[in-house]
Structure formats: C-alpha cells, structure tokens
Amino acid sequence: MIAAALLVALAAVPEPTPAAPSGFARVAEPVIYYETAGSGAPVVLIHGGQMDRRMWDPQFESWSKQYRVVRYDVRGYGRSAVPTLPYSDVDDLLAVLDALGIARAHLVGHSLGGAIAQEVARAAPDRVASLTLIASAGLGPEIDIGYIEGFTAATGRRDLKPQLEKLFADSALVTRDMIDDVLKYKRLDGVDAALRAIAAASFPGGRQAVLSRDRLGGLRVPVQVIVGAKDRIIPADHANGLPGTVAVHRLENAGHMAHMEAAGEVNRLVEGFLAGVRAG
Asked: Domain of 101?
C-alpha cells in the first residue's frame, strides 16, 4: 500500500547513534533505517503511527536473547527517509529483509505496522513465517477521528497532551519528553501538510479506508491478534468474529499501546506463539 501514517507519529527527531548493529536498506528513494540484535529465527518489529522503532524497546532486547530481532523505521519516521515520491511499504520491508539476507521472518506489527504486516503476508507469503498483530489497523472501519484531527491540529503542549493521553489506559505514561518529541516532529518542514493529506486519504468520512479482516483467514501463515480492552483509538471489538484460525488475546488493562503498557504479558504471548509456530 502507498505509505500512510494511519495514526500519526512521534518520529523523525534527532537521536544518538545506537549500540545495536544497524544499517540502511537501499530503496528507490534514499534509505530505510534498521537495527538488529541477537541470533536465531528472524523476528521483524513494525512500529505504529504513534512512534518510531524505539516503541519496541520493551521487546527488542528481551527477544534478542532467543531470536534475531530486527526493528526498522517506516519511511518518514525516525532515521528513515522522508518520502517525496509514491512508494510501497511492502517493498520497503522486503528491502530490509534482502539487505540482511533474511529469506523468511516472523512479523510483529502494531497499529499501522499491523496493516503493513498483513500486506506483506499477502504480497509475499513465502517471506513470512507468522503474523502477530497488536491493536492493528485494518480490522474494522471505526477509528477515533477526533484523535486524528486533534493530533493534526495540535501546535503546542496544551492541545497535544490530551490527544496523546488517548493512546494509553494510564494517561500518566504520557511524559513531557514524549510531548516535546512529538512537537519537534510536527514542526519539521512539510509534516503538517503531509499529515493533513494522509488523514484525508486514510479516513474519508472519519472511517478507515483500507480494511483487511475478511482476508485474514486466507493467509497462509499462523496469525494472532492482541488488543487492549481500553483502546480508545481503534476499538478492541474489531478482534471479535475473526476467523477461527486466528488466535485472539484481549488485555483488560491496556490501551492502544498494549505492548508498552503490558509489556510482560505481550512478550509472554508472542514468545509462546512463536514457540508453537516453530514446534508446528
């Protein structure tokens, strides 16, 4: 799919060079930044539209003890190129795999990243070993359009903070540093116009434009879905009525950022799922 930040971002802010092995995958228009750690079966982490690859900090180090973990910045986020031409999120992810010599990987996607993971599994099924979708976009039409509009319009801490608080069941997790990082991103040249264009294209009439739930059962890989019962951005009920082949887990005390708020529980679910896929 043409890249679209389905849920807006904390990204593209300066950061120190990481200690993890890292690099840039060459694509048609500059580069896609990635980091790797560990060894074993490859697991690729695809961030949501709220943050860049660093949103996976609670998983990256932990999972690297038994897997080869890769996390990357979706184009326009973090240290990856800001897009100026049409492009494909699928091609970008496959370019990362090719750059690392990975033939097949487990994909773990959050929100926007979940939608990207589904597209990759459909376009290149031989490259995907399994899918874990956390608070994924594309499983139902509803979305909190007030969040999208509020984030897009926000220009200062006072109007941005209540929007970011919607991402978490525990609003105390929204720190001043987080707010400041988002504001830095929003003030970059071209970001405001890009966010408005993305919102108009992705959420016509205040609903998600791209839906994929009816195609989940046809995927040729094991799939699990994890949702936070207190998600105020994408309704947790989108996980209801999915095909019987899809494992569904509902975390009662988590919001949209379940992998951050309930990291231990999410880690346990994903590790158990991956162990079962390997055993099977």
From this structure: 22-279
